[in-house]
């Protein structure tokens, strides 16, 4: 597994070397070195928080583009449910799907439709798990946000067993396509290109690094890179008739809380925004939320509608998604979807089978003894550093600078306060030295003047 | 504990609900940094949290001390406070002498000491009336016991 691949990268030319991004990173994965931001790949969870924060737009996501469609003879778009919330009110899924066809896709398979099967699978898994497990093994955590999953791997490895082992909706969409549509098409699988239309960079990374068993998603195209073209087509009107399959249950997944509403699990909790998620995971790790069954955690504010690669304001998009979901039945799973869900669930179709290892990127050393010594050194350095967490050294906090120093990646004088102290010391030493003269030369001018003024003062007092 | 290894100290103020839990959280972060098994971290963090809350709820002031060696972890919670009148009673689940204010805030469920006992491998309590309490909890680093 290529765990070190990241879709979030730095555009060196645009980076001004400011420290906005380092302060906001939930895994302290960014440093400023040599006037440019550097991403520590082991720690990065691709949440896109830095893309949102950077005023110079120096953080970007590597992705596929519409040009990549050329590599395939049959191109399939898998639009995320949140895409429907990007357009003006009144633009229905039907128009968006037609627009996707009109910009070059041969077929569109809605992830919102697949999300309804996921809804069935998650609900059934919750029923089985809560019946079989003690409360201290609760709550379970949704697997749908890859940035949250990665955050757990890096910062909360003890919670890995709590992640629901059900595929996220886009994977189910791809699997369903392979199951239902592939046999009907005259193309070999390698000539068919599946592209997830994504609101966020974390999904891009997931697609690039996941072991894709039984399906193959070939790439991801961000909303922001095709929005203009889609908008043109939406305005031009539908030239191709595409019938949406999704209902409000699946569309609702686009917003924070939508998953729990769809799954209809009362004893659940929804949290959004990566820092809020981290704070809540701390509580779960301390066994403080054992009375809750299910946590829907989304890295982006307001859920997928707030993805770092979206166009519309997240709060506006969230309302649009809610209204849209209400107009196309968000109450019940269509009976045929529930029936298919039951059939597939029994076969283990939704089981993700993805191995989720702990990522020990925050550890000071592999060896416990060495790590203890290093932590002791960190604590020692903390007594010297000012504790202002100013970020001027290029590390996000004084503690992270102390860790960087212990790891050999920074030095104490990188702290401008320490540097100033050292300079002050050096300057006073210099002054002192400059006043010293070999005895043969006699007293220096300044020493003479000091002596004179002293005698004047004392005489003035008389 | 053969070698004392590293020692970290965190002071805790009685009645300071705003800062309650910070010492346990710092202990958790430190253990994460040195790469202690996630299950062990969880046990230590829960035990440390309960010990910290006991100081906040009942004592004037106190401190948590974390001692880390390669094979063992120890958390010591010592406070200046009223002491525990009947340790056996306090060890029973559901028994609590927490104030109404504390209960209104959701604390004082009477699970503090029982949880500390459950999470640690060994626990000793020394307490003197009107003077204070010292709780010493030991944890094996290798043994990832289920709590």
Structure description:
The complex is a heterodimer of chains A (462) and B (147). Helices cover 43% and strands 10% of the residues of chain A. Chain A has 462 residues and is of the alpha/beta class. The radius of gyration of chain A is 29 Å and the shape is elongated. Chain A starts with 7 loop residues before the first strand and ends with a helix. The relative contact order of chain B is 0.21. Chain B has one domain (6-140): Heat Shock Protein 90 (2-Layer Sandwich). The A-B interface holds A 136, 155-158, 282, 285-287, 358, 360, 362-366, 368-369, 371-376, 378-379, 403 and B 5-6, 8, 24-25, 28, 30, 32-36, 38-39, 41-42, 45-46, 49, 68-70, 141, 147.
Strand content of chain B: 25-35%
Overall pLDDT of chain B, averaged?
Answer: 87
Instruction: Look at the helices and sheets of chain A and give the structural class.
Output: alpha/beta
Rg calc of chain B: 14 Å
Please state the overall shape of chain B, judged from the principal axes of the Cα atoms: globular
What structural category do the secondary elements of chain B indicate? alpha+beta
Order of helices and strands of chain A: EHEEHEEHEHEHHEHEHHHEHEHHHHHH
**Total number of beta strands of chain A:** 11
Shape of chain A: elongated
Treating each run of at least 4 consecutive H or I residues as one helix, how many helices of chain A? 17
Radius of gyration of chain A: 29 Å
Q: Please count the helical segments of chain B.
A: 5
Strand order of the largest sheet of chain A: 6-5-8-9
The oligomeric state of the chains shown is: heterodimer
Name of the CATH superfamily of chain B: Histidine kinase-like ATPase, C-terminal domain
């Amino acid at each position: 597994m290529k765990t070190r691949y990241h879709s979030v990268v730095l555009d060196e030319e645009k980076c001004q070397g400011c420290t906005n991004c380092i302060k906001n990173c939930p895994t302290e994965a960014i440093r400023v070195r040599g006037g440019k931001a550097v991403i520590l790949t082991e720690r990065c969870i691709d949440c896109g928080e830095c893309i949102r924060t950077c005023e110079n737009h120096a953080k970007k996501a590597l992705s596929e583009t519409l040009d990549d469609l050329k590599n395939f003879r049959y191109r399939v778009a898998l639009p995320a449910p949140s895409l429907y919330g990007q357009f003006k009110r009144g633009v229905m899924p039907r128009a968006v799907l037609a627009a996707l066809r009109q910009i070059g896709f041969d077929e569109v398979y809605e992830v919102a439709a697949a999300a309804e099967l996921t809804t069935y699978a998650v609900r059934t898994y919750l029923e089985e798990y809560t019946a079989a497990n003690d409360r201290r093994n609760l709550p379970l955590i949704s697997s749908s946000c890859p940035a949250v999953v990665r955050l757990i791997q890096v910062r909360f490895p003890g919670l890995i067993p709590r992640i629901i082992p059900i595929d996220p909706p886009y994977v189910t969409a791809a699997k369903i396509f392979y199951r239902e549509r592939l046999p009907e098409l005259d193309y070999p699988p390698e000539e068919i290109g599946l592209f997830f239309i994504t609101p966020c960079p974390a999904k891009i990374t997931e697609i690039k690094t996941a072991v894709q068993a039984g399906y193959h998603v070939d790439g991801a195209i961000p909303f922001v890179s095709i929005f203009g073209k889609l908008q043109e087509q939406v305005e031009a009107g539908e030239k191709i008739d595409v019938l949406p399959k999704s209902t409000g249950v699946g569309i609702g997944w686009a917003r924070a809380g939508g998953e729990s509403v769809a799954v209809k699990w009362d004893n659940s909790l929804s949290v959004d925004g990566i820092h809020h998620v981290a704070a809540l995971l701390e509580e779960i790790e301390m066994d403080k939320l054992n009375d809750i069954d299910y946590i829907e955690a989304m890295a982006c504010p307001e859920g997928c509608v707030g993805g770092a690669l979206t166009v519309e304001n997240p709060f506006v998009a969230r309302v649009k998604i809610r209204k849209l979901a209400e107009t196309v039945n968000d109450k019940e799973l269509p009976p045929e979807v529930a029936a298919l869900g039951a059939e597939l669930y029994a076969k283990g179709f939704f089981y993700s089978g993805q191995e989720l290892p702990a990522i020990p990127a925050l550890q000071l050393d592999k060896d416990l003894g060495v790590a203890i010594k290093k932590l002791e050194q960190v604590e020692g350095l903390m007594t010297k550093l000012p504790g202002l967490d100013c970020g001027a050294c290029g590390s996000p906090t004084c503690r992270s600078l102390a860790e960087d120093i212990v790891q050999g990646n920074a030095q104490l004088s990188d702290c401008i306060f320490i540097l100033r102290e050292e300079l002050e010391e050096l300057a006073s030493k210099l002054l002192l030295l400059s006043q010293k003269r070999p005895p043969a030369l006699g007293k220096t001018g300044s020493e003479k003047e000091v002596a004179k003024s002293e005698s004047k003062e004392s005489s003035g007092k008389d | 504990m053969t070698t004392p290894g590293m020692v970290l100290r965190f002071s805790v103020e009685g009645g300071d609900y705003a800062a309650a839990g910070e010492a346990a959280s710092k202990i958790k972060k430190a253990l994460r940094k040195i790469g202690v098994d996630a299950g062990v971290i969880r046990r230590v963090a829960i035990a440390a949290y309960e010990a910290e809350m006991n100081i906040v709820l009942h004592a004037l002031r106190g401190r948590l001390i974390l001692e880390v060696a390669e094979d063992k972890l120890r958390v010591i919670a010592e406070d200046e406070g009223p002491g525990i009148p009947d340790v056996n009673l306090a060890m029973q689940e559901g028994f609590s002498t927490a104030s109404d204010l504390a209960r209104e805030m959701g604390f004082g469920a009477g699970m503090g000491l029982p949880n500390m006992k459950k999470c640690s491998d060994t626990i000793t309590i020394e307490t003197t009336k009107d003077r204070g309490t010292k709780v010493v909890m030991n944890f094996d680093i290798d043994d990832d016991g289920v709590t």
